[in-house]
Structure formats: C-alpha cells, structure tokens
Amino acid sequence: MSPRETVICIGCPLGCRVTAVTDRKGTVTALKGAECKQGQKHVLEELRNPVRTLTATVRTGDESFPLLPVRTSRPVLKVMLRPIMRETAKVKVKPPVKAGDIVIANVLKTGADLVATADWPAPGEGV
Amino acid sequence: MASRVDVAVIGAGPAGLAAAVAARERGAERVVIIERAEQLGGLLPQCIHNGFGLLYFKRDMTGPEYEKAFIDMARSRGVEAMLEAMVIDLDAERGITAVSRRHGYMKIKPGSVVLAMGCRERARGALGIPGTRPAGVMTAGTCQRFVNIEGYMPGSRYVILGSGDIGMIMARRLTLEGAKVEAVVEIMPWPGGLIRNEVQCLHDFGIPLLLEHTVTFIHGEERVEGVTVAKVDAERRPVPGSDRFLPCDCLLLSAGLIPENELSCRAGVEIDPVTGGPVVDQNRQTSVPGVFAGGNVVQVHDLVDWVSWEAEAAGRSAAAYADKGRLKRADGVRVLPGKNIRYVVPQFISGKDDVTLHMRVTRPGLKATVKVGGVMWKRYRTVRPSEMVILEVKGQALREAGVKGELAVDCEIRGGD
Ligand code: SF4
C-alpha cells in the first residue's frame, strides 16, 4: 500500500473522497475526508479487504437459452474476480436448474459458492 | 376475451408485475398483464448484476433474482399473463386493442388500465453524432442483451458515450469478459449514474471517465474503427483543438432513457414535457379517468425498488377504480418544480393526505435544503441529478398550512458542487 491512498466511500450518495495516510508498516494512521463514522469503517474495510459480489454467466449449450446467470453467494476479494471469471468459462450446466442452485461450490476456495440466479427452463405463460 | 377483465396491466417488467400483484391484493378479481415479449420480467433478465432490492427486500439481489421474486408473487396471487401480445391501441375509454399469434386480434374493455411500458434508451439518431453508419454502434442495453442473454461479444474494444448506469455496468461486464474499454465519455461535469457504479465498475478496473467530453465523430465505413472525442465548454460545445482519436470497434450509447408513451398518447393522456411521462396525481391516475401509470413510464427511476413502489400505488388505485367505476382525481394542488428542481412526481396531490414526492435536481450540490412551499423542509448532505430525491410530506402539515392551488418545491444549495 502506498503511503497515501484515496478511496471513494459508497456508503451514501455523498461519495466522500477519503484519503488514508499509512505508515511504513501499512497501518492506517489518519483518515481525511469522511463525513461520518460509518464511512470511516467502510473505507478501512475497503483498504484492507476490498470485496465485491461477482455476477457473470455460464454456458448451457441450449440454443434458446444459451446462458445461465450466476453470482457469488457472497462478496469475494476483488483480486479474485478475474480468476473466478476464468472458472465460469470452464463449466457447462445441465437443466433443470433452480435459482440458488450451486454451480461451483467454494469457488477457488474463496468461501463463496457460484450460484444460479435464474430458473432454467424459465417460467413461461400460464403464470 | 370471454370474461370481464378488472385490471389490465400493459407491460410485464418490474412495474407491471408489481402493479398486478398490488391490484390483486387490493381485491381486483381478474388482473391480466399484457406483454409483447415472450417472457415476463421486462429488462430484468438481462440485468444480471447485483444491487437490486436493497430497499424493497433488504437484500442485495441480481436482476433475475428480483424478477423471480415478483413472478413468484404474481403466480401465488393469481395474476394472469398474456405473452407475445402487443397492445396496438388504447382509447380514451380504456378500450385496448391487442394482437397476438395465440389469441389473434383482441378487443378488451377492462375496468381500469395500468400503463407499465417502462422506458427505452436514447439512440444515436436522438444524439445526432456525425459520421458514417458503420456496424458496431449500439445502445448499452442492446449490447447487454447480446452479452448476457444471447452470448455474443459484439466487439473487443469499446468506447462508451454517456455515463448512465447501464453504460458503466457494461464497462465492467465487458472488461471481465476480456474486452478493452478505452473510456467512458460524459458530456456533463458529473457522472450520469450512481456513485457505487462509478467506483465498482470504472475505478475498480481503471477505466477512464472523461467528464465534459463528447464524441464528435464516428470513424469507419463497414465497421467502427474509432471515434473522435473532444472536450466541451460550459455550453457543451466541443472545444476546438481538444479532439483526439480513440480506436475502438464498438461505440455504446448510454445517454439517457426516455419513457415509452406512444400508447399513452393515443389514449390522450397528458404528458409532462420534462419527465416525458404522464402527468399523474398521488394515486398515479393519469388525465384519462381509469388509466393509471407507474414505474419508468412515468419517470425514469434510479432504483428498481422505487419502480415497484410506484407501480404498486398505481395497481392499488386501479383496483379501487375497477371496483367502484370511479376514483376521484386527487388534483386539489398542483406541485410545481421550483429552484434547482427539474421535476416533481406526482404533479397533482390532494393537499390533504400523506404523500411521497419524487424529484430530480438540475445540478449537484452539497448541503442542500429542499423546501415544499411553506409546509416543510428537509436537509440533505448532498443532492445529485443522478439520484432521486425522495421526500415524505404529511397530510397534517399540508392541511395546517392550508395549501391550495399551487405548491412550489425548491432546492437551496449552500455548499459547492
Ligand atoms: S463517509 Fe459517510 S457521509 Fe461520506 S459517503 Fe461515506 S457514508 Fe456517506
């Protein structure tokens, strides 16, 4: 981590630009620019452990429904987004799939499962 | 159609689904959604990203998950749906003409109608960019459909014009799928979408956001080969000498959404020139009795949760109208956008009941105070055009202030941008 790093807090629409000053060991010594306490917490978390939910698609091999949307069951470290994308390219699912079904369990040992977010076959008429 | 329809809902996106569910819950016997696509959900199936439902379900959901939650509700409440059915006319007496391969040519005269057609993206014609007509120019939503539903990458190197939410979300999606996004180009001095998208879709991937820039030329004969971007001045005119060439094989447009109101106009529904949607009262009744509207057909919302909320109000009112054959217009007071307010929805309120005002400011600012006539005011740490300002006004306060005729809403800004 560089001695100074700026993070935009997304805790609320204000979007404070928060600058963190760190010492040589990488410990945050000062935070400037956050308008509230909650935001400071968010920014510290974002500096230490930036996590994101990944959403993507996996192949089905079906012509009329070629892609099944998926997500990680919980946020994963930002650096894992691209590696998980490569995993999604390797799998092919078979019907029937229900939203919430696990497509890859504990994907790349992140602790998150890759789960389907839609049903396949999709619900048709006759709702 | 053989038997009577109480409430007909036009459109099966998030607005239509929420309106139909609410109408059933309010006691409407037969609620039918008419949808031109082959499935329910509108655009939600292609919005595979998360960030939906945080307000409505208190959960971070993806588009398909949000859609499924509403489809499940519609199913359990006995809502009927007619798919691949296109409404071609709506008259001033709620008469619907629709065509479908399955049901043929249909005339329906429901007890009431909910307009839930949503909105569409502003296309290149509406933006007026000079250049040839090569392949590779499309709206961000079209690209989203290619990538997320059909499984095609329409290009490998992209420039995105406009920093609307769909454009920023596609910037991330395309990058994760291995494409290069050269830049997101925004003519205004501030981004068009939500901050969380600016951070998580652009900053996370080092995608440049060029504020106060625009695309002045599209290069390429058969296929896009690049675009010229230039800085703009305060009047949004390109600054001579500031232009530069960005190579790309795809130009995505994400420069605003327009409520889809051709049908509303056919019925003679009064349209607000600013929102582009019907003028509605607090019950979401339009100027045509028995015709209600909710969701992005009324105003382009920032969050789907508010689409559902507004459409539910329309659905409840439509059920009440279908039951009694009338619903008094709540038009005692006209709400007018004042200083730094672009619009307020609903445009009419009774002046007696509790009401939630949805509005957009014209420019961003810090330390803002939104004042509703002499009735009430509320402070906001920040306001931005990309995020809706939502304000609840108590009926008691309106009554005590004796509001009649017109009520102006102003936004005063004390801090800077
Ligand atoms: S620091 Fe607080 S006020 Fe600033 S953006 Fe974050 S949550 Fe909002």
Give a quick set of tags describing it:
heterodimer; A: 127 residues; 2 helices; 9 strands; 16% helix; B: 417 residues; alpha/beta; FAD/NAD(P)-binding domain; Immunoglobulin-like; 3 domains; 9 helices; binds iron/sulfur cluster
Polypeptide structure, described:
Chain A is α+β, with helices and mostly antiparallel strands and 127 residues long. Chain A has two domains: 4-49; 55-116, CPE0013-like fold, CATH 3.10.530. Chain A contains two helices and nine strands. Chain A has helices at residues 37-48, 81-88, and strands at 4-8, 17-22, 28-32, 51-52, 55-59, 67-72, 76-77, 102-104, 114-116. In chain A, the strands form three sheets. Chain A has a four-stranded antiparallel sheet with strand order 5-6-9-8, with no helix packed on it. In chain A, strands 1-2-3 form a three-stranded antiparallel sheet, covered by helices on one side. Chain A has a two-stranded antiparallel ribbon with strand order 4-7. In chain A, strand 5 (55-59) and strand 6 (67-72) form a beta hairpin. The model of chain A has no long low-confidence stretch (mean pLDDT 88). Chain B has 417 residues and is of the alpha/beta class. Chain B has three domains: 7-120 and 258-322, FAD/NAD(P)-binding domain (3-Layer(bba) Sandwich); 123-255, FAD/NAD(P)-binding domain (3-Layer(bba) Sandwich); 333-415, Immunoglobulin-like. Helices cover 23% and strands 32% of the residues of chain B. Chain B contains nine helices and 28 strands. In chain B, the strands form eight sheets. Chain B has a five-stranded parallel sheet, with helices on one face. In chain B, helix 1 runs parallel beside helix 2, helix 1 crosses helix 8 (304-324) and helix 4 packs across helix 5 (165-176). The longest helix of chain B has 21 residues, at 304-324. Chain B is globular, with a radius of gyration of 22 Å. Chain B starts with 6 loop residues before the first strand and ends with a strand. In chain B, 54% of the residues are buried. The chains are: A alpha+beta (127), B alpha/beta (417). At the A-B interface, strand 5, strand 6 and helix 2 of A face helix 2, strand 5, helix 4 and helix 6 of B.
